[in-house]
Please model this.
Amino acid sequence: MGAFSGFIAGLFGVGGGLIIVPALLYVLAFEVQEVVLMHTAIGTALAVIVFTSISSVWAHHRHGAIHWQYFIKLTPTILLGAFSGAIIAQYLSFDFLRIFFAIFEIMVAMIMWFSISTSGYADNLNRWVWLITGYIIGLVSAIVGIGGGTMTTPFLTYNKVDIKNAIATSAAVGMPIAIVGSVGFIIIGTGIEGTTSGLGFIHIKALLSIVMTSIFFAPLGAKVAHNINGKRLKKGFALFLLLLGVFVLSF
Model:
């Protein structure tokens, strides 16, 4: 799980939560009570992304692919949104989180597959668009346990940013989301009945096991991303999201 999620994180700039959350639903099903199972999977995924994103970001930065100006525009409200999402998640049921996660993935997959985009460019966007978008990305990412790449990448490509640069920038955006989201899930999970990890909604054993390999495979995924055709990469990203959405919906 760690190796595959790390590779996908580097390849698509998604943080790896898209793989980790569905996988942990099965792995932890017999150890964690269902009422907090989705919350534990999401919290643990966010904690993993903290480490995986560092490795992925460094690899993309070495290729000079990250648009740091977009990262700076999105980050302030992403931090607020991520913490808000973690707080809101404690009031949402397992089934709501699962269905929300799945439908969200399928919708984004359709946008990416059909290459829907605006006629404008990211550099021309109003500051308020960046702030509002950042908050939404942070909020939804923390609720479903992802690094934000499934929203940041489509948002940037929708505004005429090259797919490879969008993926690289999304990887960077995932870091603050994961840090703030993880802290939020530790806080809201502390003292909740049904958790077994001792650190809120973060499962320590799963976290350490996944991180041990994910941090080594993220740079490999980033290297592959910069050596394949952009259109194929975009189609592959869309298909990947669609399959994950269907998988979680059928859980």
In short: Residues 34-62 form the longest helix (29 residues). DSSP finds ten helices and no strands in the chain. The mean pLDDT is 81.
